[in-house]
Amino acid sequence: MQTHRSPRTSPGPSPAAPPRLRVGVIGASGYSGAELLRLLSGHPRVDIAIATADRSAGRLITEVYPQLTPCQGMRFTALDPRAVAREADAVFVALPPGESTMVVARLVAASRRVIDLGADFRLHNARLYPRWYHWRHRRPALLRQSVYGLPEWHREEIASARLVANPGCYPTAILLGLAPAVSRALAAANVPIIIDAKSGLSGAGRSANLSFQLPETHESLEAYQIGTHRHTPEIEQELARLAGRGMAVTFTPHLVPMSRGLLATMYVTLRRSVTTAALRRLYREVYAAAPFVRVLEGGSANPKDVRGTNQCAIGVTVLTRTRQAVITSAIDNLGKGAAGQAIQNLNLMMGWPETLGLEQAGLIA
Amino acid sequence: MQTHRSPRTSPGPSPAAPPRLRVGVIGASGYSGAELLRLLSGHPRVDIAIATADRSAGRLITEVYPQLTPCQGMRFTALDPRAVAREADAVFVALPPGESTMVVARLVAASRRVIDLGADFRLHNARLYPRWYHWRHRRPALLRQSVYGLPEWHREEIASARLVANPGCYPTAILLGLAPAVSRALAAANVPIIIDAKSGLSGAGRSANLSFQLPETHESLEAYQIGTHRHTPEIEQELARLAGRGMAVTFTPHLVPMSRGLLATMYVTLRRSVTTAALRRLYREVYAAAPFVRVLEGGSANPKDVRGTNQCAIGVTVLTRTRQAVITSAIDNLGKGAAGQAIQNLNLMMGWPETLGLEQAGLIA
Amino acid sequence: MQTHRSPRTSPGPSPAAPPRLRVGVIGASGYSGAELLRLLSGHPRVDIAIATADRSAGRLITEVYPQLTPCQGMRFTALDPRAVAREADAVFVALPPGESTMVVARLVAASRRVIDLGADFRLHNARLYPRWYHWRHRRPALLRQSVYGLPEWHREEIASARLVANPGCYPTAILLGLAPAVSRALAAANVPIIIDAKSGLSGAGRSANLSFQLPETHESLEAYQIGTHRHTPEIEQELARLAGRGMAVTFTPHLVPMSRGLLATMYVTLRRSVTTAALRRLYREVYAAAPFVRVLEGGSANPKDVRGTNQCAIGVTVLTRTRQAVITSAIDNLGKGAAGQAIQNLNLMMGWPETLGLEQAGLIA
Amino acid sequence: MQTHRSPRTSPGPSPAAPPRLRVGVIGASGYSGAELLRLLSGHPRVDIAIATADRSAGRLITEVYPQLTPCQGMRFTALDPRAVAREADAVFVALPPGESTMVVARLVAASRRVIDLGADFRLHNARLYPRWYHWRHRRPALLRQSVYGLPEWHREEIASARLVANPGCYPTAILLGLAPAVSRALAAANVPIIIDAKSGLSGAGRSANLSFQLPETHESLEAYQIGTHRHTPEIEQELARLAGRGMAVTFTPHLVPMSRGLLATMYVTLRRSVTTAALRRLYREVYAAAPFVRVLEGGSANPKDVRGTNQCAIGVTVLTRTRQAVITSAIDNLGKGAAGQAIQNLNLMMGWPETLGLEQAGLIA
User: Fold this and answer.
1) How far is CA B101 from the centre of its chain?
2) With contacts defined as CB-CB under 8 Å, which chain B residues touch A218?
3) Which of D193, D196, D258 has the most C C-beta neighbours within 10 Å, making it the best mutation to test the interface with C?
4) CA distances for D67 relative to A174, A309, A312, D152, D254, angstroms
């Protein structure tokens, strides 16, 4: 069997060592997939058993990503769900929207634990798919089984889930930033929350595109899909759950000339007066037990400060002139916004400490 | 006399050539000052007569900025307002906030035309300076003489002004983007306009600062001065004039890892329903005669497309779900946001074509 | 006729104005082609009569390149050599290697002046094409008519040429940097000159390529085509002419995470002792009449200082310990390395001042 | 006592766990110092006992570097060598050139193991300091005790050393790239080796400097200290030892617009013919037992591929036309070029596995 062990355990498991989980990664050559390999290769309780990547099938992982030295000797394989189900007990699926539905269905049927990093199982209402994604969902029944994998707000459900839908990168930063205010009914009902988000270009995925060549992105900065971005229904679904009422948001994503990193700046009109200090205190209380959420002393979160980690940094400011809260929320779009959070979800599903394999410091400079 | 002629005219003015205006630049070694030199050295009707820069006094301009080849042989001088008044008929002042008041006062007293790129003469209400700038204005009487130099909205006043206060970079992009909607009473009165702006780092000025070293700014993106940025009163003053009523805005500037470029994304709650097409049409009508404002076919302006130019690109989108307009407005912070607009103002003050010396194409890639 | 006039002449040519030359640009949507449009649109003696771009045929130039405001209203056309010959008196051809041969042949046959920015007419020896370019030259007879368009070293030939082969970007920086030493027999005969060159990514052309996406080029820096780059024979051909003997060089190009700019660092073992001061003096003498070559006070040229211009900056240092000269030579790969030099060649072919349309200052910051 | 434990061991050492080493970091707020904290906080056998940083004394480490989450709660202290000697058994010193001499002397006198990341103990010949560093060495006797800490070539000496001088970033990449050829007498004696090196800006240290502001470094690329860089004697000292004869090199460092990463391109004239394949094979043999050196299949190493790691990637190409080898060698200047290598040295000094705490995969994208 082509099992791979992370080098940290190279002397081999001692007799007392707990058994290790065999995990698979489907779509392992995209940016999220590769980040999964990076993080999983340092996780103390898992072995990467299989990593599929259709375009790179047969190639050494280190040939495509020389940085992944712990994966030395391991090769990408073509996607064969049966082989994955055989080799792995838990599977991460990182495929483009619409492509994971049937793969996930099969793995769930084979009683594998599944964490889907794509969009196919995030929305509870199947009718939203045609509207926002322009395709009809092929396994709507599975949507009921799926748990939205934002651990800070769905910890218990995730712990008992077989299928977790890992949130999108934008929704992760946005929901963590808005949830305390919204769940405590601080947001005025009649004014939509405005979300102005900025992402580095790894968020656009790994494929050749003239628009993302360096000379094109250099000194370039723009909004895209204004009012139509597909993460919108996911944000509204979760906010509605927190608010106990329907929520409409105005969401404008931007691309900035960075590789990694995501910042959401959010404008919430407040129902009642509250000071900056009081609102920060509330946020701190809400997240007191959340190991990956940091409520800042100041108002400005910066994705640089969480790069390469599973952290989310949140800044809170109240503007008394206009009775608004300005919330900034920063994550690494490939970390807490994708691979890191997926591993956090796995830890919860397995009953392991939530932070396992996710404690390492971020890269400075 | 230390007059400098741009090389384009090297054969010497022919007998029929119109007389050239002698201009001075005070604070010529900062980014805005240097951009003034770059643009003025290609302007067909002016000679750069004097360029002051205290820290670089005595040095060749091309030693500090090798790019400024047309300034070959010319040296920065120390600031001596009397010398400037003697050498130049019109003067651009590019000094830090608070430092231009007395210099401008002296030049105005000497009957020189003055375009101040700083903040000292932008606010009509002297009492706003202590509040936003933390200093008391030393020549409040001059504020009445000063014209706010946004040509698209103050063309006539500028034409007859002796003292023009060149707008800040953020206010330029923001006001051009909001003015059509606000002046036509499309903005709901009870919901503050939200302005989320992003700027490259040349906007922070040219001085050694650990925070702006490449390894610190690399992959860095953050908001700053949330709710307290000093461009706020300037924005509100002009919007109030356009609206005919007091206006409060929520303004959040961000720094993005770019050198030049500024994008403002603005959220206006509409008083009545209007389609995207209709709103774009309105914007096109309003700016039909403005040579430097381009209303886009799409909704997303990009500062890359106007880099090195005096253009402002504006994108307009109406979100029917929330009855909001999302306006994006992009400029080059050193061009239309500073030096380019200053020259546009000079052109108007001199009765020259508005576009003189400002027609060149922007740098691609 | 679809003639286009640059806005600088908008008042229209006065009766005394000299007639303007109609020029065409073939391959106008690549980076070099677009830079040609940028520069030509500001040139006082030409009108852009036609601009072809097969992939963008029918689109407005400003739709593809919003920066090219002076080209407003003009459209790219599909390449039809007959139409080009009809519309234009002089033609710039900016096509990939091997694709310009037949187009150029046709334009030359139609008695048009041609400046080819590609590689098809740079090598005098047709047998070098199969070896370095892997195709056989289809019009070898034309190679004899073609003049190598490095104006500083072929001024007279260019002036009387009908077909000019614009040098490659690397050879331009390299030859300008080496020619004074080599032509004065300062380079030791038995030690090959070593050329370590670094280029921004616009030098790799404008097409979708996974390797040049921002997240891939970010923090990336590498050599490529070590010892096999196709600019090698061009460099050796010209050096041999200067030296009066065969010359072999070791040439290693690198890609650095920049958009524009090219730096060549060159190591010449000297035949005899010479001081840094004496060698700089020699370089200054050689280039005394060259308006676009600047020999620096120091040893380190920087492409940033010549960005957006047709300048070449050269730094000269002699290391007495090893009796070597270290020459650094910096250009803008799209300026002096492509479009700028092509226009300099046109100026010479037309008997105009060499600097016409090329004097503008470079962008600061 | 202010001891700090990395969170990975949070459950506390089990009775069977080996004792942990208390380490100190002097100069911990510079880029190398911070990278030491990052790596040490994940090292399974050490506790960071003390971290000094004069300018930041008293501040929380995570206030200065939010990325260093494992250092939560720990503060920088002012440098007091006595306190360091009391708290730590092994000490990393990361101070500017000339500033570590007396501190190291004191720690050595207190029988602490010392790894000095600065230049003060790298040169065996004290007389080279005045010449290259412009100061006289204050403890020349200690130079005899100091071991040059390039583990791949000094493993045994390091294992028994009390004082290790960690090599400079440039020398590390250069020596690893040249040593196989030089030690096997492949380099021609009469032709100096040419080294053209390129470094990201974190190599220039962490302090406010106008030249390194983003708008100044943007699109900037230049050589510096041509022929006079202070890493030259260190390179020559070690090459001479490998060659068994005096060696002079020509070394030109460049700064490229990156944050991290260092690439050296080296040109070695060969004494005898050898094929690329044979030379690669030789390199592979030489480094067969070196866990951090990777000899590539191709000729072009890229620092991106080793970012955040302690790896060195080496590409080897032989040019038969000129009988030269072109060696490319890439490291992370803060990893193998500083902090990573320092920890590798600690591991050897302690008799631990060489790779302890240094196995993690590098950041992708």
Assistant:
1) 18
2) 304, 365
3) D196
4) 21, 8, 11, 31, 29
- Taking contacts as CB-CB distances below 8 angstroms, the residues of chain C near D192 are 322, 324
Phi first, then psi: what are they for D287, rounded to 5°?
A: -100, 15
pLDDT tens profile B206-232: 999 999 999 999 999 999 999 999 999
Using a CB–CB cutoff of 8 Å, tell me whether C38 touches chain B: yes
Distance between C99 CA and the closest CA of chain B, angstroms = 24
Q: Is D60 exposed, middle or buried (0-12, 13-18, 19+ CB in 10 A)?
A: middle
Q: Could you tell me which chain C residue has the CA closest to the CA of A259?
A: C215
User: Residue with structure tokens 């070791």?
Assistant: C250
Angle, alpha carbons D2-D5-D8 (nearest 5°): 165
Using a CB–CB cutoff of 8 Å, tell me whether B252 touches chain A. yes
How high is the ipTM of this complex? 0.94
Q: Tell me the C-alpha distance between C180 and D73, whole Å.
A: 62
Task: Enumerate residue ranges in chain B where pLDDT < 50.
Answer: 1-14
Name the nearest CA neighbour of C4 among C49, C53, C35, C70: C49
The dihedral region occupied by A32, where left means phi > 0, alpha psi between -120 and 50, and beta the remainder, is alpha
**Residues of C whose CB is below 8 A from A210:** 206-208
Test mutation, D199, D217, D222, D228, chain C, max C CBs within 10 A: D222
Which residues of chain B does C313 touch, with a Cβ-Cβ cutoff of 8 Å?
Answer: 66
- Helix H, strand E, coil C: the string for D30-52 is CHHHHHHHHHHCCCCCEEEEEEE
Q: Could B258 and A222 be called an inter-chain contact, meaning their C-beta atoms sit closer than 8 Å?
A: no
Tell me how far CA of residue B305 lies from CA of A198, B301, C218, C340, in angstroms.
Answer: 19, 8, 22, 21
Q: Is A265 helix (H, G, I), strand (E, B) or coil?
A: strand
CA distance A258 to A307: 11
CA distance D122 to D100: 12
Kindly state the helix (H) or strand (E) to which residue D346 belongs, with its residue range: helix D340-350
Coil/strand/helix, residue B147: strand
Q: pTM for the full model?
A: 0.95
Distance from CA of A258 to the nearest CA of C (A): 8
Q: At what angle do helices B340-350 and B31-40 cross, to 10 degrees?
A: 50
Per-residue pLDDT tens over the stretch D22-49 = 999 999 999 999 999 999 999 999 999 9
Q: What distance in Å separates the CA atoms of residue D220 and residue A24, rounded to the nearest whole number?
A: 44
Interface test mutation site (partner A, options D31, D67, D201, D333, max chain A beta carbons within 10 A): D67
Question: For C73-117, how does the pLDDT look when each residue is reduced to its tens digit (9 = 90+)?
Answer: 999 999 999 999 999 999 999 999 999 999 999 999 999 999 999
CB atoms within 10 A of CB C347: 22
Alpha-carbon gap: A127 to the closest alpha carbon of chain C (Å): 35
Residue C57: exposure state from Cβ atoms within 10 A (0-12, 13-18, ≥19): middle
CB of D35 less than 8 A from some CB of A: yes
